[in-house]
Design goal:
With 158 residues, the chain is of the alpha+beta class. It has one domain (10-129): Peptide methionine sulfoxide reductase (Metal Binding Protein, Guanine Nucleotide Exchange Factor, Chain A, Beta Complex). The chain has 2 helices and 9 strands. The chain has helices at residues 10-16, 19-27; strands at 46-49, 55-58, 62-63, 71-72, 80-85, 92-97, 103-108, 118-121, 126-129. The strands form 2 sheets. The protein has a 6-stranded antiparallel β-sheet with strand order 3-4-8-7-6-5. The protein has a 3-stranded antiparallel β-sheet with strand order 2-1-9, with no helix packed on it.
Length: 158
């Protein structure tokens, strides 16, 4: 990740961000489920941190988790840090931008893809750069299509 970033002051961030963006990114809030701009939109591109512009997730990692927030099965290596979060009486893993430490959402180990991850991210934390198109993901290995034919043993009658 690039290091030529100077973190704006909280006053500068309040002027730059909407009240909802500021609440989520800087105060660890949560946007209302099913309201985010990126919930269903998945154009090709790279999702970046709204505060510092650091690339966080590629569009090829996005999937519909039906949870109310955009979900990704992997982050760009080194872009997201994971921190234990015990707020609200829960044990979760918070995700933050590794550059500016802004809150993004949480990650869970119940994702449906081979990574097993579900990064549940607030839309208001993200900008989408459609000028940077990620490379396609490696194709999944083909499923074993050979059928196993077995025999059914006759159950003895009693």
């Amino acid at each position: 990740m690039t290091t030529d970033f100077k973190m704006p002051s909280e006053e500068e961030l309040k002027a730059k961000l909407t009240p909802e963006e500021y609440e989520v990114l800087r105060n660890k809030g949560t946007e209302i489920p099913y309201t985010g701009d990126f919930l269903t939109k998945t154009p090709d591109g790279v999702f970046a941190c709204k505060v510092c512009g650091q690339p966080l997730f590629e569009s090829t990692a996005k999937f519909d988790s039906m949870t109310g927030w955009p979900s990704f099965d992997q982050a760009i290596p080194g872009a997201v840090e994971e921190v234990t979060d015990t707020s609200h009486g829960m044990n979760r893993i918070e995700t933050r931008c590794s550059r500016c430490k802004s809150h993004l959402g949480h990650v869970f180990d119940d994702g449906p893809t081979e990574t097993g991850k579900r990064y549940c991210i607030n839309s208001v934390c993200l900008d989408l750069d459609t000028n940077t198109v990620p490379p396609p993901r490696a194709p999944k290995p083909p499923l074993d299509t050979e059928e196993t034919v077995g025999t059914i043993e006759e159950i003895p009658k009693t």
